């Protein structure tokens, strides 16, 4: 039995030399400001959660990310894990309590409870007709304005690790993550990467909340954010292209494993942020799968560019 089973990913936490520049990028990416203090920025999505992205002022760096606990008592349980902090109040906008841990790669993992809820933001929802069902929006006009994507929530983190086996054991034993797909190269016992989801029993969850790769270095490959729909991915893409100041990493395409329609962009310090929509959702009954490395392809869209392979920064 794991120590606890986490509910979901809560936020990513970065460090950047310019909070102004970070806010500009994240706003163009489709988030909204939740709070700004003298030394940190808190950005939110359209869901009623206080924030999903934190940037602290300082040298560029990846601090880590946070998971929501399912119950307040879980903070007590996880605080007894070796190396964990005591339960501490979060002295930041949104409040709440947390336990901090350090994963085998040096990332800070916060397990949080009691973060302030806020009202959801309005979302433009576009009804789609299909070839086989073409009257779903009869009599209405679809006229989309140029705008950023509508970021809804954070979905997952992807990391490179020099100790994949130890990292997977740590996340599975402490937080109850379960494998959706373990990826092998050559022989099936040569696992080189793994996509893991939260265990919420019968409840369906995203295909992956943590994707980890064996590598020769440690780094964040990307943080990933769910948006409303496919129009939203493409509108967001065009909006960021038009800004002419951000590096595009990969997309638009549809993944094989997870099946998300994706698009990847670098922030001004090379930290990759993904837009996605329409993931596979699984529950505990779906079990775990072993997949060859060739399954890490796009079902449509370009192949992974060379610059994004083994990409990870700290
Ligand atoms: Fe992703």
What share of the residues lie within helices? 10-25%
Total number of helices: 4
Q: What number of structural domains do the residues give?
A: 1
Which percent band covers the strand fraction? 35-45%
Q: What is the approximate shape?
A: globular
CATH class: Alpha Beta
Please compute the radius of gyration using only Cα atoms.
19 Å
Low-pLDDT runs: none
CATH topology: 2,3-Dihydroxybiphenyl 1,2-Dioxygenase, domain 1
DSSP strand count: 20
Distance between the termini: 31 Å
CATH homologous superfamily caption: 2,3-Dihydroxybiphenyl 1,2-Dioxygenase, domain 1
List the helices and strands in order. Answer: EHEEEEHEEEEHEEEEEHEEEEEE
> What value does the average pLDDT take?
97
CATH architecture: Roll
Strand adjacency order, main sheet:
19-10-11-13-9-14-17-16-15-20
Label the structural class: mainly beta
What is this structure, in a nutshell?
The chain is mainly β and 314 residues long. The protein is built from four helices and 20 strands. The chain is globular and about 60 Å long.
């Amino acid at each position: 039995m794991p120590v606890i089973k986490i509910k979901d990913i809560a936020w990513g936490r970065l460090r950047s030399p310019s909070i102004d520049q970070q806010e500009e990028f994240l706003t163009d990416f489709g988030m909204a400001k939740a709070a700004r203090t003298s030394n940190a920025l808190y950005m939110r999505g359209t869901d009623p959660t206080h924030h999903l992205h934190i940037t602290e002022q300082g040298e560029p760096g990846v601090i880590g990310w946070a998971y929501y606990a399912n119950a307040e008592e879980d903070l007590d349980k996880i605080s007894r894990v070796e190396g964990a902090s005591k339960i501490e109040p979060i002295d930041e906008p949104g409040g709440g309590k947390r336990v901090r841990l350090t994963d085998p790669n040096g990332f800070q993992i916060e397990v949080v409870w009691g973060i302030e809820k806020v009202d959801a933001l309005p979302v433009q929802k576009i009804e789609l007709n299909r070839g086989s069902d073409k009257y779903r929006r009869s009599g209405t006009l679809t006229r989309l304005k140029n705008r950023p994507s509508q970021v809804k929530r954070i979905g997952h983190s992807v990391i490179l690790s020099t100790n994949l086996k130890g990292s997977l054991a740590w996340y599975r034993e402490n937080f109850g993550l379960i494998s959706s797909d373990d990826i092998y190269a050559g022989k099936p016992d040569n696992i080189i990467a793994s996509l893991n989801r939260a265990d919420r029993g019968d409840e369906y969850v995203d295909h992956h909340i943590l994707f980890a790769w064996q590598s020769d270095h440690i780094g964040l490959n990307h943080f990933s954010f769910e948006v409303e729909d496919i129009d939203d991915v493409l509108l967001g893409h065009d909006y960021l292209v038009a800004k002419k100041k951000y590096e595009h990493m990969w997309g638009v395409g549809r993944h094989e494993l997870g099946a998300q329609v994706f698009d990847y962009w670098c922030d001004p310090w090379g930290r990759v942020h993904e837009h996605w929509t329409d993931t596979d959702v699984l529950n505990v009954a779906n079990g775990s799968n072993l997949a060859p490395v060739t399954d890490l392809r796009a079902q449509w869209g370009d192949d992974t560019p060379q610059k994004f392979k083994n990409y990870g920064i700290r």
